[in-house]
Specification:
The chain is an all-alpha fold. It contains 8 helices and no strands. Helices cover 67% and strands 0% of the residues. It is rod-shaped, with a radius of gyration of 36 Å.
């Protein structure tokens, strides 16, 4: 039993002469002109440079992040009457250590009192720094009980503002 239909010889010869479908070569991801290759390389270089600079800036500001962590602990301690005196001393110490991390030791280490307050105001993004001037002029040497809660809050706010926004000359 022959189930295949018989084809006439012309059709059979035509079917044998058919070829497979020609598939085009895959499209290359390489740019067709040198100009696009150069643009792609420049764009990649710019992205890598931006990432390197962002990482460098992040590393340079590690002392700020550390200082802000310490400032949070000081802020809590300042509100406690028993720990207030120590917290205010720690606040002054924290500001000095932060400045020493950013500026040369010769510019910061010997500065104290009103000169230190002026340094903080000059290099920070504060409007007047009145709380710092009062703190480093009088309150640093007086009992912590004389400090009102309003002044405490102002000192911590100014310290946070200074740590976050002080400008170090290049």
């Amino acid at each position: 039993m022959d189930t295949e239909p018989k084809l006439d010889p012309i059709t059979e010869m035509a079917l044998r002469s058919l070829k497979d479908i020609a598939v085009p070569a895959p499209v290359s991801w390489m740019p067709q002109t040198w100009g696009w290759l150069i643009v792609a390389l420049l764009l990649l270089s710019a992205i890598l440079l931006w990432c390197a600079l962002a990482y460098r800036r992040w590393r340079k500001n590690a002392y700020r992040r550390e200082a802000l962590k310490h400032l949070e602990a000081i802020e809590v301690a300042v509100r406690d009457a028993d720990k207030r005196a120590r917290a205010l001393r720690d606040l002054g110490e924290l500001l000095k250590r932060t400045a020493l991390a950013a500026w040369p030791r010769t510019d910061v280490a010997a500065t104290s009192g009103l000169a230190w307050a002026a340094f903080l105001v000059e290099h920070g993004n504060m409007k007047n720094g009145e709380a710092f001037q009062r703190f480093f002029d009088d309150l640093e040497y007086q009992a912590a009980t004389l400090v009102s809660t309003e002044v405490e809050g102002e000192l911590v706010r100014d310290a946070r503002r200074w740590i976050e926004g002080h400008h170090v000359p290049a």
